[in-house]
Amino acid sequence: MKIAAFLFLVITFVYRSDGAAKRVKRSVGYELIETRLENLHITLLERIVKLETLGSTSLQNQKSMEDKIISKVSILANDTKCSRPHFKSHVHNPCESAKSSGVYNLPDLNKNVYCEMTNMGGGWLTVQYRSDSKLSFSRSWVAYRNGFGGPDADNYWLGLDPLHQLTTSGQYELAIEMVNTNSTYRYARYAHFHVADESEQYKLTVHGFSGTLPDKLSLHNNLYFYTHDRDNSERCVKQFPSGWWLTSKGSVCYETNLNLDYSKIYWRDWHHKASKTRMMIRRRKY
């Protein structure tokens, strides 16, 4: 760019000097030189304008590239900068403010849910309930993902996708209640409960046990959810058509499975057949 400007000044000077000389002497040869200088002057002007345009475009492209690089670096930094779990925007849980037990609307997920406001301090949202054999739990992947049954019915499954969205919007705990045919009541609580999204096959995170049931669900920590139509290559999936977090290693498929056929609901070392089961979650207060 500087060289072009310099050439422009030189030619302009020669051109002007040539104008002064023209008044002294005008010949055919000199007029030819004058014409060539004029053409060269015009050509150089055009090239200078073109160079300025190219330079401006180059600067714009460079700035655009820099902006893209900065944007990508910022995204990468946000993805990797901390080890704390990233929570989505708060999903309103009506059980946090309900005054009594009953069915409430969960508008963020377009779901009706049952809130338990008496047992274990209240504030619990029911995600699974079994009380008889009227509703089959031998369902497809889509059914377990979206949910089935009703929160005010005798049998109910909230859905894996709502479970994921709720447990990703904050830190949740889990409570499981069981009653056997002798009317004996037992429970298990887990201080940490999370369900991953569908791309991770709704992987289960559960730990921090307390309660009167044997601690069996902790052995399902980091297991994936299976249904008979989702991955029927697994031995355990072939054996048990209901959906649950199953292991694919060893001879034991599960330590507990609350979604089996009603007569086969299972919690290892829990004696007598279960007559009722309930799974509930609550946002942690600490």
TrEMBL record:
Keywords: Signal. PROSITE patterns: FIBRINOGEN_C_2. InterPro entries: Fibrinogen-like_C (IPR036056), Fibrinogen_a/b/g_C_1 (IPR014716), Fibrinogen_a/b/g_C_dom (IPR002181), Fibrinogen_C-term_domain (IPR050373). One of its GO terms (cellular component) is extracellular space. It comes from the Eukaryota. Residues 86-285 form the Fibrinogen C-terminal domain. Residues 1-19 form the signal peptide. This is Ficolin-1. It comes from Culex quinquefasciatus. The lineage of its organism: Eukaryota, Metazoa, Ecdysozoa, Arthropoda, Hexapoda. The gene is 6054473.
